[in-house]
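Incident log, support desk, overnight shift.

02:14 A customer reports that sequence design results differ from what the structure should imply. Their input is reproduced verbatim below. On-call engineer (initials T.W.) acknowledged and began investigating.
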C-alpha cells in the first residue's frame, strides 16, 4: 500500500491540476461549459485516480488506476492542443504545462513499470 500524498507522481499531478485551473480561468466565457470544464475534469481525474489506486488490493489493480490517470493525462494534452489550435492560448503560454505533462507521463510510465515488476516476483 502506498501513501498517495508522498508519491512524486501524485505531487506532480497536483501541480499540473493547479496549472490547468489557473490557465482555464482565461478561456473565453463561451467555453465555460465546454473546454473549461472538460480540461478541469481531466486534470482532476489524474491525481484522483492515482490516489484511488493506492487503496487497491494488488499492484495489478493499482496499475489499472495508473492507466486511467495516464489516459486523462493524454486527454488533457489533447485539449491543450485544441486550445492552441483555436488560438485561445499561444504555444508559449502552454509550454510550461506541456513540459510538466510530458514529465508526468514519463514518471507514471516508470512507476507503473516498477509496480508491474514487483507483481511478477
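02:41 Re-run completed on a clean worker. Output:
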Amino acid at each position: 500500500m502506498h501513501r498517495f500524498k508522498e508519491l512524486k507522481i501524485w505531487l506532480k499531478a497536483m501541480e499540473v491540476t493547479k496549472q490547468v485551473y489557473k490557465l482555464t480561468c482565461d478561456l473565453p466565457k463561451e467555453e465555460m461549459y465546454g473546454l473549461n470544464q472538460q480540461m478541469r475534469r481531466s486534470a482532476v481525474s489524474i491525481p484522483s485516480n492515482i490516489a484511488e489506486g493506492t487503496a487497491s488490493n494488488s499492484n495489478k489493480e493499482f496499475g489499472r488506476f495508473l492507466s486511467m490517470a495516464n489516459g486523462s493525462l493524454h486527454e488533457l494534452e489533447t485539449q491543450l492542443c485544441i486550445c492552441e489550435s483555436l488560438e485561445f492560448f499561444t504555444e508559449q503560454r502552454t509550454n510550461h504545462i506541456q513540459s510538466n505533462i510530458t514529465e508526468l507521463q514519463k514518471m507514471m510510465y516508470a512507476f507503473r513499470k516498477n509496480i508491474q515488476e514487483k507483481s511478477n516476483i
